[in-house]
Structures are given as C-alpha cells and as structure tokens.
C-alpha cells in the first residue's frame, strides 16, 4: 500500500523558488563528474591480492581473520567457536549453509552441547529472543569489501537483521568470490538494481568488525551495543 | 534541547570555557587524536584532493536541484509504503511526530544520535506528552544522564567530559560501582540500554544521507545502537534536515567515504546501515511502519544566497577538530548545538544575527577549517561574508566601534590628517606605555591589552624611515 505524503507541495514550491524555480517533477540529468578517484582504489587486484588486503585490514578493525578451504570449513568454524567458548549460536536461513555442508556439522556430535537455532523469518519473537541471548551469530557474507574489511549483508527474509547484531560475537563466512575492492562495487551493484526497477533489500548492512565507541575521551572501546568480538572466515568457493 | 544552549551572553560563555581546565585538557587531546587520524586517512588514499573535488561536485549539484531530489525521495518512500511528512518548522515536525506517537499509544522511545532532533527540541516535545525518550548513543546517553548537559561537538557530543567525570555521573545517577576505565563504563551502558532497545515502542533516528533514487537513507555509526533502533521497535521515525540527501547509491559511496575519513579517520565506520522503507512482509525483524520527517527549519532561507555552500556540509566536524578557537573556548562557548567554524557559519543563518552575531568573529581566519573540509566549503570566507553583512547591511556593530571606524575613515582619507595623527600617536600613548609596551590600554585598546601587550607606536614612522633612507643614498 502506498504511504502518505504530507505538505509536499507547499514545502517544495518554497524550495524551488529559491533555486531557480524548477518544477520538481522535471527530470534532472546527473552531470559527468570531472574526477572519479573511487575507481582507482585496488584497481586490477587479483582475488588473492584482495584477500591479502582484507587480512591486513582486519588487524585495524579488531577482527580475527581465518582462511580455509571448503572441505576444512567446518573444522575452522569449530575452532573459532571453541576459541570464543561459544555455547549457543544462531545462524541465518541461507542455503549456503547447506551448500558448504555446515548444516551437517551443526547436527554433528561436537555441537551436542551447544544450543543452536536457524533464524526463523516466520517467528520474530523466538528468533529475536534467541539471538539476544546467543553467544554468537553466524552469517555468510553477500559481498565483502577488501579496502575497509567490510561484510555487506542484504538483510531480508532469511538474512535477519538481528543475527549479526544481538549476539555477543559475530562470525562471518566469506566465500572468496564475494570479495570486491571497495564500497564502490557494492553501491554500483545496488544502483544497477534500482535502475532496472528491481527491489533492493529493506536493510543493507555494511559491517566492519565489532561494534565500538570513542565517546569517552576518544579512547577506543571495542564492543558497545553490537557484537564485542568478530571473526571473518575466508573460504574457497564451493 | 533547542539550538541555543547555555548563557545568553557570548563573553560570559567564553570566559566560562577558558576557565574550565578539565574541558580544555579534554578538548586538546581529542583534537589532536582526531586531527592525526583524519590526516593519516587522507594521506593513505593518495588522491584526497580528487575525492574532495568529487564530494564538492556532488554536494553542489544536489543542493542546486534539491526540489527535484526531495520529490523523488518522497515518491520512492511512499511507493514502499512509508509515510513522508514535510515540515517547514521545528514545531510542525514535532506536532507530526507527537501525533504518530499518540496514535501508537507509545510510551518508550529509543533514539539514536541526531543533531536535527536536538535543533528542533524533539525530546522535550515528546517528554511533554508523557513519553520517555532514551538517548542510546554512548555520548548522548552520558549527557542525558547528566541532567541534559548540552553536546559540545557534533560527532563526539560528550567530548568536554573526562572519564572521571563520567564515572561520577554514572555513580551518582545509576549506582555505578566500577572504575573510570572506558571499557567498564561502556559495558555498563551496554547492559543498561539492552533492555530499553528490546522494550521500546518506537525507534527514532536521524539521517546521515538519504538516497533519492531508491527512497533509502543511510546511518553511519560505530556502536550498533542505530541498528538496534531500526531492527527492534515496530514503528520507526526518521528525521532529516532537508539537505541531507544524495542523488543515488554511487554518490552515497563518495560522501560516506569522505565522512568516515574526515570525521574519525576510519575507512568505514563499524556500521553503515542503509534502510529502504518498512520491513518487507516475509521479514521477521525491522519496523512494520516507517515515517520520514523532512525538516526545513530555516534551511531554505540559505538557498539562493551567498551562503548556499553551507548546506553542502556533511557534518564530519573536521573543521571543529582543527579550529584553534574551538580548542581554547570549547563547544559550549558557541552557544549553539552547532559549534566550531561550521557552527559559526550555520547558527546565524538557521537562527539570526541577534542571537549569534558574535560567532563569525570567533575565528582567527587562519583557514585551517577550509583546508580540511571534505566537500570544500569555503568556511573562513563565509565568516568574512557574515562580518560584512553584520557591519554594513545589518548595522549590528557597537556604537563605539562605528564611531571609531568613522573616525579612522576620515583620518585615512586625508593625507594631512593622517600625517598629524601618526605623529601624535606616540605622544598620546605615552601615559599608558611602560618600557615601550602598553600593558593596560584605554577604551578600545583594552580588549587587546587584557590578554597581551601592545607595542607602543614609535616616533619614527615608515615615511620618516623611507625619507632618511633615500637621503643616505639608499643604504640602510
């Protein structure tokens, strides 16, 4: 259902009158910008070089970095869970957990003592309250930005917003092919969707490490409202 | 909190700031850290000037076509099922927000950091109808707990407080028992606020940048509170200053990249959250209902004037972090929630010269602000334009200053008068001079000599020196 728009005409007529009296409905062409430095960042880097950049950046954003193969992914994940003393975790409803055989791992005996839940888009209450108490939240990355060390999540249906937000720790599984140089490639992708009339996620999250704050004397405190620890596991594509 | 904060009299505010050693120490060290981080991040890019140029082009184009982009934004939001309210004044915005709150029968409101809601006193309006409004940004939370102490910086609002003061506030108000370690203070706030996020009826956010092409808006944060506020409550209200918009996602990339570097020297902050409409039907979390409130509140007065570039501001505070005047007097001395160079440009425009005529003079015109601005706003030039307007158009300088200036004008217009006056100066100042400096000057000179000595005019004037030099055949 279309939402309401209130007071627009009066407001925009006033604005238009100050800047040359255009009619707001008239289409405006964006000019060609004279410079575009964003395209030069990490230009022509190979996928392996981008992994190196990402690894280096993880040190600056207080994020633990792991790299593994698709066969060894479950062992690496188990190591991270053990290192973080994870007793409970929630993961997004994402078919990549099956593709990489992590659903089998979740049901295996090593996880017997862990409370585990898959995000249930049909059941807000249970999902949110489980996530709120969980030690860790696990998601796959939808796009990964090497320059800043950022996981991009197109939050929607199975990719719930709370999974990467409410638990104490956040673990992102990063298929190597999702890594791009920087935010430019992600925003370009979204722009193309918009241009071709496709829907975009109601919430696109660019997540760079654990939450932090410098509000007290500009001292960096890692872990405020969002996760306190973060780990990225880079995995060769399946 | 309204835009104006603290004591009415500018000089009293400045004196209070200068005498506050705690605050000045905190500001000094914060400025240094922020300056270094910004400089390092700019340096690392290698072509920072090109980024600034691009930022400037995007902001100019957007503000020049603001009507078009706001129209497009509102269309897109409504298509997604969100509601858009255009508010010409703060009162109109508050009335609408109150109405939404009352329709939802909401009592508890969790809020993430937003300068525009401070500007329009939204919290007070909602408290007035019996709501509890909880600031969830750590800095804002500290200030709210401390009897609504005003913010002194637009990015780090509690920058004027040191950790011992914060510990004492928590101890006094919230029975906090631990030490002044920032980690312990932050963990305490995490625990206190967690429950509030989960039980809030409505979430209210500001807006760093709206994206016209898709009806989206982005929040640039580090703590995760803005994500909570937009994931958990069932109703969400977002309040934006009308100029906080870019045409599309490709431009969002640039302004966000500039903002995070210029503000805190990060490549990206921990969270950039780009939201588009209410949650979709098959989603579990996110708001079911979404309202966007677009606020003018004096901004359109700036459009089409010589100050239009002030609307290009992306609120990074880089100018504040390098300003030598801010360093000495602190944020509260500006008497506005917008302090520093951008505050001195913007506050008189959003309000008027009666309230803020001193601010354009609270600058050494060194130009450091202009040099660091990521979207190239000529801040110090705008301060000079303000000064010209205040003196020539508005005639708001003091009577004594006007008389003195008229006298000066007459003297320098006549060669004879000028000669006589410069010859008289050393004799006239003799009673006040000691060892060739004036330490306690009369009348208008006092403002100078209150803080430093004034060299006494010498008997040999430049013209005398020049004539002598020529007599001696050019030798010195």
UniProtKB/TrEMBL annotation, chain A:
Q: Which is a GO BP term held by this UniProt record? A: lactate metabolic process
Record-linked InterPro entries: FTHF_cligase-like_sf, LUD_dom, LutC, NagB/RpiA_transferase-like
The residue ranges of the LUD domain are 52-235
One Pfam family name from the record? LUD_dom
- Source domain of life is Bacteria
Summary of the function given for this chain in its UniProt record: Is involved in L-lactate degradation and allows cells to grow with lactate as the sole carbon source.
For this chain, the family text in UniProt reads: Belongs to the LutC/YkgG family.
Give the protein's recorded name.
Lactate utilization protein C
Q: Provide the taxonomic classification.
A: Bacteria, Bacillati, Bacillota, Bacilli, Bacillales
TrEMBL record, chain B:
Q: What's an example of a GO molecular-function annotation for this chain?
A: metal ion binding
Protein name in the entry: Lactate utilization protein B
Domain 4Fe-4S ferredoxin-type: residue ranges: 303-325
Ordered alphabetically, the record's keywords are: 4Fe-4S, Electron transport, Iron, Iron-sulfur, Metal-binding, Repeat, Transport
The keyword Iron-sulfur belongs to this UniProt entry's keyword annotation: yes
Q: Which NCBIfam families match?
A: LutB/LldF family L-lactate oxidation iron-sulfur protein
Q: Which GO terms describe its biological process?
A: lactate metabolic process
* Protein purpose: Is involved in L-lactate degradation and allows cells to grow with lactate as the sole carbon source. Has probably a role as an electron transporter during oxidation of L-lactate.
Query: What range does the record give for the signal peptide?
Result: none
Pfam families attached to this UniProt entry: Fer4_8, LUD_dom, LutB_C
The family annotation for this protein states: Belongs to the LutB/YkgF family.
Q: Quick one: which gene encodes this? A: lutB
Q: Which organism is it from?
A: Gracilibacillus oryzae
Record-linked Gene3D superfamilies: Alpha-helical ferredoxin (1.10.1060.10), NagB/RpiA/CoA transferase-like (3.40.50.10420)
Residues noted as binding [4Fe-4S] cluster 2 in the record, renumbered to the chain: 323, 366, 369
Instruction: Locate the residues binding [4Fe-4S] cluster 1.
Output: 313, 316, 319, 373
Q: Which InterPro entries match?
A: 4Fe4S_Fe-S-bd, 4Fe4S_Fe_S_CS, FTHF_cligase-like_sf, Helical_ferredxn, LUD_dom, LutB, LutB/LldF, LutB_C
């Amino acid at each position: 259902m279309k939402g309401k728009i209130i007071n627009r005409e009066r407001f925009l007529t006033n604005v238009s009158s100050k800047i040359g009296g255009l009619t707001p409905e008239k289409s405006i062409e964006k000019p060609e910008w004279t410079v575009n430095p964003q395209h030069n960042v990490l230009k022509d880097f190979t996928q392996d070089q981008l992994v190196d950049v990402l690894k280096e950046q993880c040190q600056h954003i207080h994020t633990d970095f792991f790299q593994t193969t698709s066969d060894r992914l479950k062992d690496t994940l188990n190591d991270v869970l053990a290192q973080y003393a994870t007793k409970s975790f929630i993961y997004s409803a994402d078919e990549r957990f099956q593709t990489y055989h992590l659903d089998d791992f979740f049901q295996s005996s090593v996880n017997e003592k862990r409370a585990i839940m898959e995000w249930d888009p049909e059941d807000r209450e249970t999902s949110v309250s489980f996530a709120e108490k969980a030690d860790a939240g696990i998601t796959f990355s939808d796009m990964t930005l090497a320059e800043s060390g950022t996981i991009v999540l197109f939050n929607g249906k199975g990719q719930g917003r709370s999974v990467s937000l409410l638990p104490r720790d956040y673990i992102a599984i990063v298929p190597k092919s999702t890594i791009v140089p920087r935010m430019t490639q992600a925003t370009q992708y979204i722009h193309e969707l918009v241009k071709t009339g496709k829907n975009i996620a109601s919430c696109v999250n660019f997540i760079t490490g654990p939450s932090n704050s410098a509000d007290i004397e500009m001292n960096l405190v890692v872990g405020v409202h969002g996760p306190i620890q973060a780990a990225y596991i880079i995995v060769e594509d399946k | 909190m309204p835009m104006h904060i603290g004591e009415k009299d500018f000089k009293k505010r400045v004196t209070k700031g200068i005498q506050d050693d705690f605050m000045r120490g905190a500001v000094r060290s914060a400025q240094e850290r922020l300056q270094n981080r910004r400089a390092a991040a700019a340096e690392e890019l290698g072509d920072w000037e090109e980024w600034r140029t691009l930022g400037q082009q995007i902001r100019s184009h957007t503000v020049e076509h603001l009507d078009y982009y706001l129209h497009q934004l509102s269309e897109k939001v409504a298509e997604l099922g969100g509601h858009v309210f255009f508010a010409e004044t703060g009162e109109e915005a508050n009335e609408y927000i109150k109405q939404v709150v009352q329709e939802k029968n909401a009592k508890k409101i969790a809020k993430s950091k937003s300068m525009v809601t401070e500007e329009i006193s939204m919290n007070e309006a909602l408290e007035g109808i019996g709501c509890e409004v909880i600031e969830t940004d750590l800095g804002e939370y500290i200030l709210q707990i401390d009897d609504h102490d005003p913010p002194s910086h637009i990015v780090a609002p509690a920058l004027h407080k040191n950790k011992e003061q914060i510990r004492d506030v928590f101890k006094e108000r919230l029975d906090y028992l631990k030490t002044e370690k920032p980690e312990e203070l932050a963990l305490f706030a995490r625990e206190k606020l967690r429950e509030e996020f989960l039980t809030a009826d409505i979430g209210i956010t500001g807006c760093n940048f709206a994206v016209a092409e898709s009806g989206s808006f982005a929040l640039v944060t580090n703590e995760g509170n803005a994500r909570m506020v937009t994931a958990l409550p069932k109703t969400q209200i977002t309040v934006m200053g009308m100029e906080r918009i870019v045409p599309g996602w490709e431009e969002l990339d640039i302004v966000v990249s500039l903002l995070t570097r210029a503000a805190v020297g990060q490549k990206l902050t921990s969270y950039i959250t780009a939201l588009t409409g209410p949650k979709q039907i098959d989603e579990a979390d996110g708001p079911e209902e979404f309202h966007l409130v677009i606020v003018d509140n004096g901004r359109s007065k700036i459009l089409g004037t010589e100050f239009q570039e002030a609307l290009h501001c992306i609120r990074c505070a880089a100018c504040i972090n390098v300003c030598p005047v801010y360093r000495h007097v602190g944020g509260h001395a500006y008497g506005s929630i917008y302090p520093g160079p951008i505050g001195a440009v913007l506050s008189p425009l959003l309000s008027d010269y009666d309230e803020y005529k001193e601010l354009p003079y609270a600058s050494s015109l060194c130009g450091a602000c202009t040099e660091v601005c990521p979207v190239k706003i000529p801040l110090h030039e705008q301060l000079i334009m303000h000064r010209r307007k205040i003196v020539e158009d508005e005639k708001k300088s003091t009577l004594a200053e006007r008389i003195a200036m008229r006298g000066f004008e007459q003297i320098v217009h006549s060669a004879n008068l000028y000669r006589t006056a410069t010859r008289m100066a050393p004799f006239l100042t003799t009673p006040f001079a000691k060892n060739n400096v004036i330490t306690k000057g009369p009348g208008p000179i006092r403002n100078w000599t209150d803080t430093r000595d004034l060299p006494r005019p010498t008997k040999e004037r430049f013209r005398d020196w020049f004539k002598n030099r020529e007599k001696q055949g050019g030798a010195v």
